[in-house]
Specification:
Layout (H helix, E strand, L loop, with lengths): L2 H11 L2 H23 L7 H22 L8 H8 L1
Helix pairs in contact: 2-3
């Protein structure tokens, strides 16, 4: 799997309360990167794009759960037992 799909799978495994914490943390990181862009302290503008996309992914997961289109994935051990 690619890094993107692994990161997305990790986000989908989180419960709603942890997703909200991750959203707050990611928004804070995004703010710091934007501030760094204005003060010329950010080495890579790609960091900004990555954090914006991460915020959007978290919002998408939360919205899909509210609509009932998606549920939290079962823990990996439970998934492995079902597959066996």
């Amino acid at each position: 799997m690619s890094k993107t799909s692994d990161a997305l799978e990790q986000l989908r495994d989180l419960p709603d309360d942890e997703l909200l914490v991750a959203l707050d943390r990611t928004r804070d990181e995004l703010f710091r990167i934007q501030l760094g862009m204005h003060t010329n302290q950010v080495a890579s503008p790609a960091q900004l794009r990555h954090k914006r996309r991460e915020v959007a992914q978290i919002h998408t997961i939360l919205h899909a759960r509210q609509l009932g289109l998606e549920t939290q994935a079962p823990p990996k051990k439970a998934r492995q037992n079902k597959e066996s």
